[in-house]
Amino acid sequence: MKRALWLGIGLCLPWGLATSVAAADNTGWIAAPPSQDIMPDADWVTLFDQSKPLADRQHMLANLEQSPGLKDDPEDLYRLGSLYHMGEHAPGSPVQEDPVKATLYLGNAALHGSTLAMAKMAELKLAAGQYREAMNWAQIYSHYALMSPASQGTATESYAAELVDRIKDKIDQSVMPAVMADVNSFVAQHDADIRLGMAREQAREHHTPKTPKHYYVGPLGSRASDSGIADYMLVFNADGTVATMLLIDAVPRPNIGTTMRSYAASMTLKPQDNQRPRYAWVPVLLGNHEYRMDSAHGG
């Protein structure tokens, strides 16, 4: 284990709020219907199809960005933010890297319950040298992503701790009480909307492809990979295996996407009789398991 870190956001919340969070964990997520994406997965694949005219793909993207329902769709907001974060570094991308648009879309996705958008906001702020804001977002991500006891010892926990560790080295620890005050205020203001969005994401989980691999194994003799997130768009054969894999985004560096390709390629869906292709946007979280939560900072 590498080091202990301060990630005890739940323990730093006011007692009333901490109690309500614990009660929500015990009773399960609030009921919510799964959200419907504005743009189907097949169209997202078309966006990266270089055999199609670039102008047509950009027009398709503009229609999505101008859709009235986008502001309430965390899934497509997250996808747009990821698209503009990676920009031209993703093969076939119809856009250039645009940190302003990435921040706009990911920030709104986070407010509507996308925990991965919270993590990416922390990564964007860290890359921009806005370390106080990066820590705010890292603590917000840790609060929501690690609510479930099932997250202990997982890549989610490892990534959250490693993310905070990278930011912690950039700020004076004397600002942490003020950071936690900001985070508590954010949670109090946005918790209901965030939980509703998270409930919708949980309702979609049965559509998610599976993998027989429970962890990533690097090449023999290689150093342990850093933690990160990689997003892929997968196209599946009728037998449920991956036919095509597109890297859409990766943080904190593009090479995280290369590292996790074999893991993403192991994803499967149930076989089907017809030959119609099936699609899935799959985020993959990589944790190096050298970091653990530090409960010693509890009140």
Automatic annotation (TrEMBL):
Signal sequence range: 1-23
Swiss-Prot/TrEMBL keywords: Signal
Domain of life: Bacteria
UniProt key word Signal: yes
Official protein name in the record: Sel1 repeat family protein
